[in-house]
Amino acid sequence: MDTEQQLYAAAVDLVKRRYPTGWGGAAAVRLESGDIVTSVAPDTDFDALFVCMELSAFLEAHKRDLKVTHSLCLFREDETASFNILSPCGICQERLRFWGTDVLVAVTNPGKELLFRPLADLQAHHWSGAYR
């Protein structure tokens, strides 16, 4: 099983354990050490406190002082639904940029394939270009 498939399997496994019924979502990131770290978004009673599913895994990478090499986020509507890949939102793209534009990220696509692209592909016109 390659890295991308391992990430997918780790995220799916976490969703099935953490959210056995109903909606479920999780993230999986690979660190330069080869470790895979998973995370979920914490449940909150106040929407303004919501954070992305990937954040906890990104913070774990920072805690370990290790580069993120791959990132994946997925969800399903309920336990009978198929999983859908979520491209990183703009905030998570900025968080990932800390580790460089070569980080590989899973992206939403019409064929619902497990497809990874370099972060640079998602940020072809990134604002930082104005300062070069």
From TrEMBL:
Q: What is its EC number?
A: 3.5.4.5
SUPFAM superfamilies noted in UniProt: Cytidine deaminase-like
Alphabetic keyword roster: Hydrolase
The molecular function terms of the Gene Ontology recorded here are:
cytidine deaminase activity
Q: What is this protein called?
A: Cytidine deaminase
